[in-house]
Amino acid sequence: MFDELEVTGRVRTHVVQYDAPRFAAHPDAAAAFLRLRAAAARDGIELRPYSSFRGYDAQARIWAAKYGGRATLYDMAGQPRDRRGMSEDDVIWHILDWSALPGASRHQWGSEIDVVDGAVMPPGYKPQLLPSEVADGGLFAPLHRWLDAHIHAHGFFRPYARFKGGMFPEPWHLSYAPVSMRAIDDLTLDVLRRATEASDLPGKARVLELLPGILERHVRNIVPPPADCAW
Ligand SMILES: [Zn+2]
User: How far is the CA of 212 from the centre of ligand 1 (A)?
Assistant: First the structure.
């Protein structure tokens, strides 16, 4: 379905760009998202794409900032981690708690959209995409109760609905199963290794050694689409 450059986000030939709302996604995922968004609007929710397609270079900038200490590493509760005394492996695994390895991000497929509710954000509000926003009493808690009830009928599911030893829970991260469940099979260890070898990622030598474990823990062990999610 995806070629090697597409599945690692090094080209964007598999996505289309929209301006209102502004997002980029695979055409099938985009069409389904716009239907989901229309359904949400009928219930007073402005389902807004906060992050959608991200290519390899964008993910590499996130990686480099976290690896180099210019961006914060967070624990599962969204609290900043103290980096003192961390080994390189600690840094790598703690980056991977919240951020995918470049080449291995689901956002590269065009099937994934992180969402917020534009109708409840105060002017100038910057979404954090942290657990407190989604928990009971959080700004986006009503959005998430609505998503609970509606996303599966539109082909979306939450691959990071709960912690399974890899990525931390990201309830705001929606995945369009008809595209992503095929893309995940295209991202083989060989494909990911070639993309990493071709990169100038900080920590590359150690990442290459850890690659099979990263693929197992952080790419393959998602929470799969439930039975009522058609794909
Ligand atoms: Zn996401």
Answer: 22
